[in-house]
Amino acid sequence: MGRKQYPPPPEPSAPGPSNQPRDVEEEDKARKIQELQLTVQKLEEELDSLREKLRVSEARVHALQNPHAKRAVNLPDELLRLIFLRAIPPTAFLDTSPSRPYPSPYSHAIATKKAIVLTCAQWARVGTERLYGTIVLMHLGPLIALARTLALRPALGHLVQSIHIRCALFEGHMPLYLRELRAVFATCPRLEHVAHCGLLPHWEVETAAELVARNGADAAVHHGAMLDSLQLLPRGLRRLDIAGGVWLACFEAVAGEFTALEELNIILHTCAPGHQPLHPVRLPHLTALRVSTDRRTLATIEYLALAWHTPALTHLRLDFHTGPRYVDAFLSAPSRSGLKYLHVHACCESIPPDKLPLHFLPGACPALTHLVLSAGAELPETPHPTVRHLDIWTPKFAGPSPPWGPDEDGSATNSAFESQVQIRADAPRAFPALCTVRTLDRTLTDAADWPRLFPPTLLPAGAVEYAFRGFQVRVADDAITRVDVQLDEDEDSGSDYETESDLSDPESDELWSDGEGGKDDLEEIFSGTREVMGVEEVLTIWERTREREEDALQYVTPR
């Protein structure tokens, strides 16, 4: 409060012989005025102090009279960041493909990230890093919106570390797609991971050796479009996923330029191995490789063994959607001798399971320490001296007998179950230095390499449970299991598991819609979370007043 300014008292005139009594009287009057001014100033200061005390007292009385009133407490950004890390599952746990049933754990994670950013300015400041850390593009529209957002707010581009491209692209949209993708990559200097899964629709594999279009168009159109898309990828990437209609020859044309690449995941389900020339590829810094094949591309494993030179490779995973073959040829290459982690996964079980002899293992992988196998594996007769950890995928049916009863040949036992038992029995003989044996729940998603995410330990660590909305994994010393799903053994629905929180929303991209007809709210999102994570109360208050989702083509940005 401003103080009233009083004029200074007048200077007394010099005393004279005729006006001396009057001067003394004026001097006394001026002194009294000055004293009164000082007294008024002190009283005003005391009044201001009393007003402040009154305001604080009224606030305390109000708080005491309203014990249920909510009081906002601003936590430090560091604590908020830790809470959000616990509330949102890491992207490495999740399958971002649109093939997952909706609502998937990934869709729940996106809803939580958007809710955090829309709560308040502080939460937006901390949560935007999580929202933009990993971006999944399911359609061309969000790609255009992302390019526009990053152009208007370049600082957001520094938050982007991973981009998953899962767009279905029409041939006429390729120029627009390439232009916008180039603009996005130019504004993301910290980008280190790209999942390139774009494809042109209306293409199908009609033979094992040729990819043709349903409308009879030239296959070179598809090849050229995908090659142009791959050539836009930043050359400083550390992790790269290639899938969704990309021929191996397209990647090999640019593979030599990715000199910093450390991890590569390549799905060869649409390759044409019979028509591929042998192009040597050198990836000097590649330490982790994952290759997924089906029946048409099985021979590509042998091709990669001859053409790809990976001297730094230490972690290898091979996913077979058919019987495992050519594993010995791939591992016998000189550049694979430094392997320490080998994961051979039979994704589609058969009865009886396809056999995988591992007699070559001691000579091909002398430094191997961690081995992951599926049913059907036959351990080597010659002991392997360095293997210390063994993980085994559980068969589809845990019991010794399949639910449909005896097989056609009259056998009543599940040979996959017998194979798992046999592997456990032979393990001490085949691996004298063996320290740990774990089982892996086959309902775990294939998107993550779970044994590598949670490596075994020599000292007992007890069980740790990672509980998120729609997703819950328990990691123990003897097993990694997903506890929020049940094996669907009663219905022949084509799905291996069903979630306990299965809802009926059919669209996988509803979270990026305009909000009309949406059914998700924060109470529903957090109702199944076993760990509250310290944010549920505030989010419940916020959701009473929030508006529905904004425009589909706009990414959420802090206000």
Automatic annotation (TrEMBL):
SUPFAM superfamilies: RNI-like. Residues 486-513 have a biased composition (Acidic residues). Residues 1-30, 486-527 are annotated as: Disordered. It comes from the Eukaryota. InterPro entries: LRR_dom_sf (IPR032675). Residues 1-15 have a biased composition (Pro residues). This is F-box domain-containing protein.
